[in-house]
Amino acid sequence: MSTPPLLAPPARHLVGRFSYGVTPALARDVERAGGAPAWFEQQLTPEAVADPETDELVSWWPALSADPAMLWQLQILALQGSWQVMADYQRWVLLRRMRSRRQLFEVMAEFWENHLNVPAIGDTHFVHRTAYGLELRKHALGRFDDLLHAAVTHPAMLLYLDNNLSTATHPNENLGRELLELHTVGRGHYTEEDVRNSARILTGWSVERPPTWAPVYKASAHWRGPVRVMGFRDANAAKDGRALTRRYLTYLAHHPATAQRVAGRLATKFVRDDPPRALVAELAQVYLDNDTAIAPVLRALVASKAFAGAVGSKVRDPGEDLVASYRALDVKVLRPATEESAANALLSQVSRIGTVPFGWPQPDGQPIDNDSWANPSRLLASMQTHRALSGGWSPREGASFRTWRSWLPEVPIRFDQLVDHLAHHLLHRRSSPRLLKACCQAVSIRSDEVITGSHPLVRSQMPDLLATFLDSPEFLTR
């Protein structure tokens, strides 16, 4: 087993926060890029990073490329239900995170799909849900202004929050309210009259009835007349309100409260649960100064003292845990051949730990704080999953696991040297006295004991040893 480069702690922190786990392959990518800052800058332009193996994954589940009419036909004929299509979408998401060389892009795509949440469940909006995720990916490192417009006017969002039922005479307030409360300014910045006018502005955006489910703008359903939402005012005299929507969403995207909200969520996700107010204020100003562009905000975030001082302060959520485990153990997932194949089993694995990708049913999206994922039941589920993966026992089909013997760089080797070697590969750091003690206890081996090719560790105890690394605080945080 060749020895990969070992990133310095600040570099490991940066790469770890903006990836789904530092692996030997990723460390080599960072080294080739010229270091962690250069890698980070390279990752901000994902189209420049070749990733053909990840791009090919969508072909594993043909329904993900089907249009809404075809998906609806499959549903009503009971050939492939909405839950099955969405399960495939979630599996595809997990595999992208495992394989992609565009790690920062995948992290940010997940961040925005949670912020602008449309659950990957539901018997109507599912026909547009894959396209919704792809649309948000286009803007994940662009401008929030464009991202917000793409999300709010997308047929998946319109169906999920009932804007397709909104009319000039009876505006539905669901989307207009969540736009203010969750997507932009947040509570405390608007009134109920603002919500009503927000809903009036969005009337007209709709989706055709089945079987086509085609997006449509119905000018006849657009409410006309003066509107006012906070500081936004418009005569709203035109029959077609699409330009009005663009003006309104641009106003919201550039609102100082939206800047604070976006900056706060980014700081909570990538720094710590209680980010310094000064950092949030700084990021919000960068956001406004750069016309809502996301990349400059990320640059300012990683350059901050608060980011540098936040090592190990964020708990991995269930999805991050599972993906990082597959990456650390170098498990190769193959194209699914049966329902029991590893690519399909991913969803049941992550569900046992806590939650599936974009399975959060409420509009507010999956939590990004530590408390939501730091509890005994989740830890026990993670430990069970770590051991099953470390042993190569589950999933049994459609996956290629490393042999237990392959984790030893040489034999004979002293146990403490093996622990340090594994810490390098699995945790991307040197061993510590605490980690060595935990490993000794896990397999009842002295630190100076010599491991040979026929040692019981190699024959039967390696899963317990490998799982100890994945169960460690160093692995369960990022």
SS elements, strand count = 8
The main sheet comes to:
2 strands, antiparallel
Please give the alpha-carbon distance between the first and last residues.
25 Å
Unreliable runs: none
What's the pLDDT, averaged over the residues?
Answer: 97
Strand fraction band?
Answer: under 5%
Give the spatial strand order of the biggest sheet: 1-2
Q: What's the domain count?
A: 4
Helix content: 40-55%
Structural class: mainly alpha
Count of DSSP H/I helices: 24
Radius of gyration, CA atoms, in whole angstroms: 24 Å
User: What's the overall geometry?
Assistant: globular
Description of the structure:
- The chain is mainly alpha-helical.
- The chain has four domains: 9-253, no CATH class; 256-308; 318-400, no CATH class; 405-476.
- The protein is built from 24 helices and eight strands.
- It has helices at residues 9-17, 24-33, 36-43, 52-55, 68-76, 82-99, 103-115, 126-138, 144-152, 155-160, 174-183, 192-202, 242-253, 256-270, 277-289, 294-302, 305-308, 318-328, 342-353, 376-391, 415-427, 433-443, 456-470, 473-476; strands spanning 205-207, 215-217, 227-229, 232-234, 332-333, 399-400, 413-414, 450-451.
- Strands 1-2 form a two-stranded antiparallel ribbon. The protein has a two-stranded antiparallel sheet with strand order 3-4. Strands 5-6 form a two-stranded antiparallel sheet.
- A hairpin with a 2-residue loop joins strand 3 (227-229) and strand 4.
- Helix 18 crosses helix 19.
- The chain is globular.
